[in-house]
Write a structure and sequence with these properties.
alpha+beta, Alpha-Beta Plaits, eight-stranded antiparallel β-sheet, 6 helices, 21% helix
Length: 287
């Protein structure tokens, strides 16, 4: 695998014998090499309820000037990178859309990285609009031919794409949350998670509700959101997860026993998500 999620059980780790490396004063990283890839483990906050670590593989460029068929010009304004994972629009495939102004090429390396995750790219197309060039892929699991429904694999897809952006378009580093750890230039400003977090629930027909979450992005967020929702016996039917610069925007179609969420359950869900996503006020080590 090019990228795998290593949860507490260790079921998805890709390397052993990791070596600790310096991370410029931040929490130390542990890295290893695997079939020509460099894999680094990113510590997640101790508050995270599902996962302790995420193993993120960053492909090495074939040369210092390697660019994934796109423009490496960084003299103009850097656009906001966008990665959309759409589970709604196609019943048979997961749709992935990547936008970075007009700088992206054919993304062959990204497609190869997705194949290394055990996925098939069954369709790819490109379209242009005022926001730039949009690369869209329809992907399925190679061993079943069906769309991806595992939150851990969906998060691995997202991190794979973001890592390729950082590798082949290093100017995106200052526009992405992962740029603080893996990029050449961290974001100039950190998002205040308390201010950035918005959670709303709307009616969405007779059988489900629509949960909308916007918050500061970080590795593992998609997995943790789904874990919190399902921990209170709410079913996630489908949804969309967007990474837009430093922000993450999620839309989940949810239900409880085949029905929309009643007001009391909506309040429980909103409070649970706010508690998990809020900025910590006290260091856990102080207890």
């Amino acid at each position: 695998m090019a990228v795998a999620v290593a949860v507490a059980s260790g079921s998805r780790g890709i390397c052993s014998g990791l070596k600790q490396v310096d991370n410029n004063g931040v929490a130390p990283l542990k890295c290893c090499a695997y079939r020509g890839l460099r894999s680094c483990v990113v510590p997640v906050s101790a508050k995270a309820r599902l996962s302790s670590f995420f193993a993120i593989s960053i492909p090495r460029a074939t040369s210092p000037t390697a660019v994934e068929d796109g423009s490496s010009n960084v003299t103009d304004t850097v656009p906001t990178p966008k990665v959309i994972i759409d589970q709604d629009s196609d019943p048979d495939a997961t749709i992935v859309e990547i936008t970075f102004g007009d700088r992206l090429g054919s993304l062959l390396d990204t497609m190869n990285a997705l194949k290394n995750l055990g996925l098939n790219v069954v369709k790819a197309n490109v379209y242009l609009d005022s926001s730039g060039k949009h690369n869209k892929f329809a992907i399925t699991k190679a061993y079943t031919g069906r769309k991806v429904d595992d939150p851990e694999l969906l998060e691995a897809i997202r991190l794979t794409i973001i890592n390729n952006l950082l590798q082949y378009h290093p100017e995106s580093s200052s526009q992405l949350a992962l740029g603080a750890t893996f990029g050449v230039e961290p974001p100039a400003q950190q998002i205040d998670v308390d201010i950035a977090t918005h959670i709303d629930i709307y009616d969405d027909g007779p059988d489900r509700s629509l949960l909308v979450v916007e918050t500061a992005d970080r590795p593992g967020l998609l997995v943790d959101l789904v874990k919190i929702i399902t921990d209170i016996n709410i079913t996630v039917q489908s949804g969309e997860f967007d990474t837009e610069g430093l922000l993450a925007k999620a839309k989940f179609h949810v239900s409880y026993r085949g029905k929309p969420l009643i007001k009391a359950l909506q309040l429980v869900l909103i409070n649970s998500l706010r508690y998990f996503l809020r900025r910590p006020t006290t260091e856990e080590a102080s207890f």
